[in-house]
Amino acid sequence: MKVINLMQKPDLPGSLLFQPAGLLALPHSVEVSDALSVNGSGVGGGSNSIKTALGEYFERRHFYREILSSKYGFLSESLTGAEVNSFARAFIQTASRKVSIREVEEHKFTLSKVVRALDFSMCLIPTVCISLSSYGLDDDNFIYPLRDTCGCSFHWCPNLAFFRRREGVS
């Protein structure tokens, strides 16, 4: 069964495709997509397949289209020395050509504002680390060319996502 969103609202998916299992022992499959080719899929029993597909769709949509750059600058402008070193050591492994730690430290990145999970303080990290889109990241793509999302970054409840507990439950 295919459900099409005729409202054409950009904050909602354009269609949901429900594919019931051929045998009762197999899970259902759901595909969610929009007019700009962002897709999410989910497999599972009952509404879990719908929840999984919607979660993947919103995750991909976010990381493809909603990551904004705030600044153009060096890693050291808002990161600690240890954080700069960690990024540099990671990037010399992911780069599509040979680069040194010094080159990474002296490279001007397109940066995005994020919140540290450790203490909830703000900092700037390379947009290329969190955006699946290459748009506007031409100077940084060689440092981190192959990107994907973690597959579990979309949560229904922020408290559960950050603190592993539900609202009002300690």
Automatic annotation (TrEMBL):
This is Uncharacterized protein. It comes from Pseudomonas veronii. The lineage of its organism: Bacteria, Pseudomonadati, Pseudomonadota, Gammaproteobacteria, Pseudomonadales.
